[in-house]
Amino acid sequence: SLYEKVKIEGGGELSRLCSNFNVISYKLSQIEHQRREFVHNVSHELKTPLSSIKLLIESLKYGTYEDVNIYKEFFMDIYGEVDRIKQIIDDLMIVVNIDENKSHINLELTYINYLIEKLISRMMLKAKEKNISIIYKEIDNIQIKVDNIKIDRAITNILDNAIKYSNENSNIYIYLYNEEKYAVIKVKDEGIGIPQEDIGRIFERFYRVDKARSRKTGGSGLGLFIAKELIDLHGGDIVVESKEKEGTTFYVKLPLDLN
Ligand code: ADP
Fold first, then answer.
1. Are the CB atoms for 213 and 220 separated by under 8 Å?
2. What region holds the HAMP domain (predicted)?
3. Which residues are paired to 108 by β-bridges?
4. pTM, to two decimals
5. Ligand 1 pocket check for 223: Cβ under 6 Å
6. Cα–Cα distances in Å, from 102 out to 38, 95, 96?
């Protein structure tokens, strides 16, 4: 082939140039592949709730129900699907900002305890629907500089998963403590757990363990990707331990000396 010929005749420098060129074009094709996959996934994620809305509206259009409550239920379902779409778009906006390095970090001295209490009370209703108890314990009083909105978002995503992937009548434990140079927020659930072979991939964008199950539980597959990115921005770390059918524990570690 022409390439082989150039490589042989050109010897040292040209051959190195060629192989560099090959590496670059390989990387470009990888990026292109990821981009396509991303667009494919986004379209699919948005299509699912939109199809449901369409169906629900059609049922309303042709249905002649005596009971007003049935209409109310339809509207509530539509509302739920619209909310899902909003959630996906919000997630996408965050991802776009992360990709463009536009996510400015706005550090403020924060009582982490206060931040956690606030987000737990926001998630309480969702937990109650499954009769899940959230047990929170502040072991150390920690006041550090963080971007409030971003850390709230990261922990909310993790707690949201803990509720989503837990069975009814179970407990979720949250602890806040110091460990070496880090503030640690531990979120432990008694849920379905994550299979060993998937655990290394759950922080990838759009990765979901069980596609069929996840579809029912909702979500965009972006939650943990976003959580990890936001924690990385703080110079922190996120660690997961899990056992199938027993539960999952996430440790969010934030540097104590972030300025
Ligand atoms: P999703 O929107 O699907 O929840 P995430 O990025 O938040 O996306 O999580 C990725 C996948 O990791 C989930 O689809 C689920 O399979 C798994 N997962 C995350 N948290 C838990 C948990 N607490 N227990 C069991 N599985 C979990």
1. no
2. 1-33
3. 146
4. 0.80
5. yes
6. 19, 10, 8
